[in-house]
């Protein structure tokens, strides 16, 4: 039955965020716990009336506290550069290679002494936990990229397929060729390009190579992906026993790139969205 692209696009979702998408708290707690002893030592400076001298003494007695300082500024690195009218400095916090006076200068000029001595915060452990939550938001893009992949894998398992037996994850073209003795030079530019598919399903006499993605925003990448997968779909049709399958979604992304997506839709038999998954397309393909 012929599908209508416009009606198909209307079924796209704006988001598929699950509860773990927003913050990876296990990672946050792990990162903070790794420096909790040093943070608690630094807590002794809170409200100090002579914080510069007290800090120098702490550095002398407990030099490991230095590794906590970058994260107080929401920085992951252990080597920071700073310059002003007084000169250029490279501050190393993985070990005490700068002088105590230089470290104290860094704390003063970055505002950390003021933050700690004036009791603007009451507990550095809690403060760093908040910083880690904020920094972890940068990981949402990576987590978001796996959401569609995880969803497709859930549906593969729901129809009774087993990983490593019926379907395989993250498989390169060369591995597919070796495992099933099939020539895929048409889609690998005669072996010059090593394409990796998110999933591969082997059913009877057909190998299904699967790509998945979900787009929450537009951009040139979507147009490039649509054109690339259009070419891949056409090339795949020339290979006996091989089929390319694309699961994609994300209305907020594809609405601005819908013309390129439609061009791919018109030539590709196996292009599907979440609504198709919910309506049993996996069973139609692989059972």
Task: Provide a concise account of the structure shown.
It is built from 15 helices and seven strands.
SSE inventory with pairings:
Blueprint: H1 5-10, H2 25-33, H3 36-42, H4 51-61, H5 69-72, E1 79-84, E2 87-92, H6 100-109, H7 112-117, H8 124-136, H9 140-158, E3 167-172, H10 173-180, E4 196-203, E5 206-214, H11 220-236, E6 242-249, H12 251-254, H13 258-267, E7 271-272, H14 274-278, H15 281-286
Parallel strand pairs: 5-6, 6-7
Antiparallel strand pairs: 1-2, 3-4, 4-5
Helix pairs in contact: 2-8, 4-6, 11-13
Q: Would you write up a description of this structure?
A:
This protein has helices at residues 5-10, 25-33, 36-42, 51-61, 69-72, 100-109, 112-117, 124-136, 140-158, 173-180, 220-236, 251-254, 258-267, 274-278, 281-286; strands at 79-84, 87-92, 167-172, 196-203, 206-214, 242-249, 271-272. The strands form two sheets. Strands 3-4-5-6-7 form a five-stranded mixed beta sheet. A two-stranded antiparallel ribbon has the order 1-2. It is an alpha/beta fold and 287 residues long. Helix 2 crosses helix 8, helix 4 packs across helix 6 (100-109) and helix 11 runs parallel beside helix 13 (258-267). The protein is built from 15 helices and seven strands. It folds into two domains: 5-19 and 139-286, Trna Endonuclease, Chain: A, domain 1 (3-Layer(aba) Sandwich); 25-138, no CATH class.
